[in-house]
Design a protein that fits this description.
This protein has two domains: about 100 residues, Elongation Factor Tu (Ef-tu), domain 3 (Beta Barrel), CATH 2.40.30.10; about 130 residues, Nucleotide-binding domain of ferredoxin-NADP reductase (FNR) module (Rossmann fold). The protein starts with a strand and ends with a strand. With about 250 residues, it is α/β, with parallel strands linked by helices. Helix content is about 20%, strand content about 30%. A six-stranded antiparallel β-sheet has the order 4-3-6-1-2-5, with helices on one face. A six-stranded parallel β-sheet has the order 10-9-8-7-11-12, with helices on both faces. Flavin-adenine dinucleotide (FAD) binds next to strand 4, strand 5 and helix 1. Flavin-adenine dinucleotide binds next to strand 4, strand 5 and helix 1.
Length: about 250
């Protein structure tokens, strides 16, 4: 793994998804160090002098592809004090500092994987999913929950991969039922499902053959992670087959 580096970036674009959820594209001042899908960066909107201490920051999964060394993408949801400050401070053209890469939440290439994401937690999986190749022999399931279909980030990319990669399956969960979205998914050449309510372990396991042989990766807010990892373990999955990207 690369040594973490601090890089100044300019905000290139901000996508407002509604519900105080944003995607931020950054143009780094130099090449991004190599990193793996699932790793994260620290981002500060405060002034930083490289000769001084690193200021207050928060961590965000890197949603962009490791192959793109000239751009970084993160998605954030406004939760508390610092992300509220980010919402006010981040404008196109403004400067931020990041340091990266960090973390060991990397999907193992050897086994079939079940990816479970809540909200902006999908960022930890995006680059991995985008890199899946049609000829890959491994099977990958994505179970992704958000408040409403509009907040299912990267859904077009997921659905495009669903159509191209035979071993990739998708199920979505939204808080309330959305008949139009559900029927759109059902009409796809390779259909996907959308359930209403929080991510439901029983529904996921019912769609994954021989789940005990798969590795489950969970990314999202701490409350979701602890509930779902407890549910998975109570279904008899070995503890080392349940890996979490703990957002604390
Ligand atoms: C590995 C990982 C990946 C994450 N990826 C994402 C992501 O992709 N998108 C996303 O929206 N969120 C992500 N988060 C959560 C994000 O980092 C924030 O913790 C979350 O958004 C909380 O909001 P806040 O910082 O506004 O809350 P705040 O209320 O400002 O702080 C929340 C927590 O931050 C910590 N904290 C408080 N003060 C400081 C300080 N001075 N310096 C450092 N930490 C402090 C404390 O644990 C505090 O409880 C990730 C977290 C982790 C650990």
């Amino acid at each position: 793994m690369s040594m973490p580096r601090k890089i100044r970036c300019v905000v290139e674009s901000i996508t407002d998804h509604g519900g105080r959820v944003y995607t931020v594209d950054l143009a780094p001042d130099g090449m991004v160090p190599s990193f793996h899908p699932g790793q994260f960066l620290h981002l500060t909107v405060d002034d930083y002098d490289p000769a001084d201490f690193w200021p207050e920051s928060r961590v965000f999964s890197i949603a962009s592809s490791p192959r793109d060394r000239r751009r970084l993408r993160v998605c954030y949801s406004v939760k508390g004090r610092y992300t509220t400050k980010m919402e006010l401070a981040l404008k196109v053209g403004s400067e931020v500092w990041v340091k990266l890469p960090y973390g060991e939440f990397v999907i193992d290439n050897a086994s079939d994987a079940v990816l479970i994401a809540g909200g902006t937690g999908i960022s930890a999986f995006t680059a991995f999913i985008e890199a899946l190749k049609p000829e890959s022999p491994r099977k990958v399931w994505l179970a992704y929950g958000a408040r409403k279909p509009q907040l299912l980030l990267y859904q077009e990319s997921h659905l495009s991969q669903l159509g191209h990669v035979p071993g990739f399956s998708v199920m979505f969960f939204t808080e309330t039922a959305d008949a139009e979205f559900t029927s759109r998914l059902a009409a796809l050449p390779k259909p996907a499902e959308c359930f209403s309510g929080p991510i439901n372990v029983a529904a996921v396991l019912a769609r994954v053959p021989e789940p005990a042989g798969k590795v489950f990766y969970l990314s999202g807010p701490p409350v979701m992670l602890s509930a779902l990892s407890a549910d998975l373990k109570s279904q008899g999955l070995p503890a080392d087959h349940v890996r979490t990207d703990a957002w604390e």
